Amino acid sequence: MWAAAPLPDDGYASHQRLEEVNRSIAASGSFSGLTADQIASMATQLAGSSRFIGEANEALVSLVNTGRISGDQLGSFGQVALEMAKDTGRSIADVTADLARWRTTPRPGRRNTRNDTIS
Questions:
Q1: Within-domain flag for 21
Q2: Has residue 5 been placed in a domain?
Q3: Cβ contacts of residue 24 below 8 Å, gap of 6+?
Q4: Domain assignment present for 12
Q5: pTM, entire model
């Protein structure tokens, strides 16, 4: 009888990150238009090293969870979130919440084409 070999820590952590991303994509109604693999790849690029992959993944997942950041903006917002968290000492969750609010905060004189209100 064969016994299942445990996944190495890296493999298990990677699997957990993909599962978290899949849940976020589903919860946001796939607003970002990206797959879990695309977001995981983006997290790897943002991290720059495996040491920061958790933080990069957390930033992207938090932004996807807002349902307000599209796929073409996700990488830029993720980079800003990581830099702001590092520079200010604030948590990634707090920074991404602020970025999502900023993304939807009305700004005078700018029309929002989604619902034709000022944004």
A1: no
A2: no
A3: 61, 64, 65
A4: no
A5: 0.65
